[in-house]
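hey
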């Protein structure tokens, strides 16, 4: 029998994420251990926005 490949990306540990926990409660609400402002700030610093890198559309598109 053939082995199935794991298609998940490798996990990388960032020291800023220590203690970060995210859960969905019984009402479907997302509950995190950090404030949403801290999460957004972290994402702004560490994740590139593909839409902003493309620049304005050209006439050819």
């Amino acid at each position: 029998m053939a082995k199935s490949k794991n298609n998940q990306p490798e996990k990388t540990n960032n020291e800023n994420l220590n203690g970060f926990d995210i859960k969905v409660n019984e009402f479907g609400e997302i509950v995190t251990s950090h404030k949403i402002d801290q999460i957004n700030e972290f994402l702004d610093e560490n994740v590139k926005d593909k839409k902003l890198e493309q620049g304005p559309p050209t006439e050819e598109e």
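The beta strands are 22-24, 30-32. The mean pLDDT is 79.
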